[in-house]
From TrEMBL:
<dbReference type="InterPro" id="IPR000172">
    <property type="entry name" value="GMC_OxRdtase_N"/>
</dbReference>
<dbReference type="Pfam" id="PF05199">
    <property type="entry name" value="GMC_oxred_C"/>
</dbReference>
<keyword id="KW-0285">Flavoprotein</keyword>
<feature type="region of interest" description="Disordered">
    <location>
        <begin position="159"/>
        <end position="178"/>
    </location>
</feature>
<dbReference type="InterPro" id="IPR036188">
    <property type="entry name" value="FAD/NAD-bd_sf"/>
</dbReference>
<dbReference type="InterPro" id="IPR007867">
    <property type="entry name" value="GMC_OxRtase_C"/>
</dbReference>
<keyword id="KW-0274">FAD</keyword>
<feature type="domain" description="Glucose-methanol-choline oxidoreductase N-terminal">
    <location>
        <begin position="217"/>
        <end position="333"/>
    </location>
</feature>
<dbReference type="GO" id="GO:0033717">
    <property type="term" value="F:gluconate 2-dehydrogenase (acceptor) activity"/>
</dbReference>
<dbReference type="Pfam" id="PF00732">
    <property type="entry name" value="GMC_oxred_N"/>
</dbReference>
<feature type="domain" description="Glucose-methanol-choline oxidoreductase C-terminal">
    <location>
        <begin position="427"/>
        <end position="551"/>
    </location>
</feature>
<protein>
    <submittedName>
        <fullName>Gluconate 2-dehydrogenase alpha chain</fullName>
        <ecNumber>1.1.99.3</ecNumber>
    </submittedName>
</protein>
<dbReference type="GO" id="GO:0050660">
    <property type="term" value="F:flavin adenine dinucleotide binding"/>
</dbReference>
<keyword id="KW-0560">Oxidoreductase</keyword>
<comment type="similarity">
    <text>Belongs to the GMC oxidoreductase family.</text>
</comment>
Length: 578
């Protein structure tokens, strides 16, 4: 029997950006919040001198242990899904802060078109533009409604940036100026301008100058060391939950953090969710944590898995189209072109979000009338800081061993650059998440099963964007270019990107979505699900800024729900007394 604990106002499952924002906001308001995290607690000082590419980037020390909890994967319903044993297409963080600690820091606002993609597309191009097999839908919220929450997230993180000339309207400038424009970025910028584009600096949460956020937390200035993605920042210069929201929550005295606490089920009694069941990963003891509100804010995969394990909502059925839990799974695909040059660049220094980009081929900024796709992608060249193991490229035809490889890899390390795009992926009826009928996790519960393959739409956008990137690299002076090509089928092991979304999507219709625009479940009014799992499709930008904005809005929704319940309870007491 699990040990039943004292009831709290709110229990938060997972303390990445989404969960830690909710914890900070509600504890500041006087609510008692318990945060459950399956990993350990890490602080900035834990990452001092931790520039170990093999340990973090190759060995994935900051990620979920796949020997205990993984997912199974297949391309189609006709195949048997097999467990994922090593990371590739996406990364599932662990420890306090989650992906918000090992991210690069690109911090975008999604475009108004993304939130109303179906209605805006049909208005401009007609109802036949989107094929029936693609489950494209509006989000049930507009950019204008979400804009104030974007601003709150940017102020929390001290985002460094400049106005996107083709981007959504801003209600205030970024909190800090853009990062440094290096010689590499200047040359890329000039090439873009010669082609008639309007380049600008990527908005970054690896910030340009020291900043004190509205909660009094200090984020330091970036040192351009080049160890951001898959690493924790030793300088405290990358906005993350362990630098901002977790300390804020702790300072209120209303927040309790419990590590090594793996939530395996949301408990429902008498048609009402009453709390969560979690396992202490050190002692294997089971605990029941009652709460008025349950906040599910873990990784996209784990949000969906937890709802399916708990039988909350209706699981998506691709044959009938009914149900929404597990629906609209999407992965960011990244068209990329590597250029080889007859000159050297300083590619060792950098930062995760240090880059120049263009938006001419993103969202609906260009005419799609004669194209067999919608949307597009943000094209960029980033100077993230080259590392010798995973970022050691050589020209085509060079073997990956021997004297020639050594010679060419040393040359290419400073004489090659790669430009890429964050590319739209649309949801398809056959791409979804479900529970695996064969394989279980370390706790005896079914693994999450991913059914996913590339679509015709993916190929059309990838080819179009790839050609645009190649034109820029040639204009920049590349003597040889190599475009990344899509495989016949999606393979989970080569690295594509870490931005997976869908499974607990937002919407205005309970029949086609899991949560409303406060991220409150339609079927369980005291359960709020927050994260990339809310996105009905993947846009042409990194998703973290939008996750953060949604988390601030969800915190308001939770407070309104609790206040409404308090007023109802008081009214009931008065009525009873009378």
């Amino acid at each position: 029997m699990p040990i039943e604990l004292e009831k709290t106002d709110i229990v938060v499952v997972g303390l990445g950006w989404a969960g830690s924002i909710v914890a900070a906001e509600l504890s500041k308001g006087g609510r008692n919040v318990i945060g459950l995290e399956r990993g350990t607690e890490k602080k900035t000082e834990d990452y001092l001198t931790a520039h170990d590419e093999y340990r973090y980037a190759v060995g994935h020390e900051m990620m979920q242990d796949l020997s205990k909890e993984t997912i199974t994967y297949r391309n189609t319903d006709d195949e048997e899904a097999l467990p994922m044993r090593r990371y590739g297409a996406f990364l599932i963080g662990t420890d306090v802060g989650g992906g918000g600690v090992h991210w690069n820091g690109d911090t975008w606002r999604y475009h108004p078109y993304d939130f109303e993609i179906k209605s805006m597309t049909e208005e401009r191009y007609g109802t036949d533009k989107i094929p029936e097999d693609y489950l494209v839908q509006d989000w049930g919220i507009t950019y204008e409604e979400l804009a104030p929450y974007y601003l709150r997230y940017e102020k929390n993180s001290g985002v460094s940036g400049e106005q996107n000339p083709m981007g959504p309207k801003r209600d205030a400038p970024y909190p800090t100026p853009p990062l440094k424009e290096t010689p590499v970025l200047s040359e890329y910028k000039e090439a873009c301008e010669r082609l008639g584009y309007q380049p600008f600096m990527i908005p970054a949460s690896t910030i340009s100058e020291q900043f004190v956020n509205p909660d009094g937390q200090t984020i330091n200035a970036c040192q351009y060391c080049g160890f951001c993605e898959k690493f924790g920042c030793e300088w405290g210069a990358k906005a993350s939950p362990i630098v901002t929201t977790i300390p804020t929550a702790k300072e209120t005295g209303n927040f309790e953090l419990r590590t090594h606490s793996n939530v395996v089920e949301i408990i429902k009694e008498d048609d009402k969710v009453t709390g969560v069941l979690y396992i202490d990963t050190l002692t294997q003891e089971e605990f029941l944590q009652p709460a008025d509100v349950v906040v599910v804010s873990s990784h996209t995969t784990n949000n969906t898995k937890l709802l399916l394990h708990s039988d909350l909502g209706t699981a998506y059925d691709p044959k009938t189209g009914e149900g929404a839990v597990g629906k609209n799974y999407c992965l960011h695909i990244t068209p990329q072109v590597t250029g080889f040059f007859d000159k050297e660049f300083n590619t060792v220094t950098g930062a995760g979000a240090l880059g120049i980009c263009i938006d001419e081929f993103n969202v609906d900024n260009f005419d799609h009338t004669d194209l067999d796709f919608i949307h597009g992608g943000n094209i960029a060249l980033k100077q993230t800081g080259k590392r010798p193991i995973e970022q050691n490229v050589v020209p085509p035809g060079v073997k990956n061993w021997g004297a020639e490889f050594k010679k060419e890899s040393i040359k290419s390390f400073t004489q090659s650059l790669s430009s890429h795009a964050q590319m739209i992926t649309l949801p398809h009826r056959n791409n979804y998440l479900s529970l695996d009928p064969t394989y279980n996790d370390d706790y005896g519960r079914p693994l999450l099963r991913l059914t996913y393959d590339l679509t015709d739409h993916d190929r059309e956008v990838h080819d179009f964007i790839g050609r645009k990137i190649e034109e820029i690299m040639v204009e920049m002076g590349a003597t040889e270019t190599v475009r990344r090509e899509l495989t016949e089928h999606f393979d989970i092991f080569p690295a594509h990107n870490d931005h997976i979304v869908g499974g607990t999507i937002i919407g205005s219709d309970p029949e086609t979505s899991v949560v409303n625009n406060y991220l409150q479940m339609w079927d369980e009014d005291n359960v709020f699900v927050i994260g990339g799992s809310n996105f009905p499709h993947n846009g042409g930008y990194n998703p973290t800024g939008t996750v953060g904005a949604f988390a601030y809005r969800a915190a308001e929704g939770i407070e309104m729900y609790l206040e409404d319940n308090r007023q109802l309870a008081e009214a009931g007491e008065v009525a009873g007394a009378n």
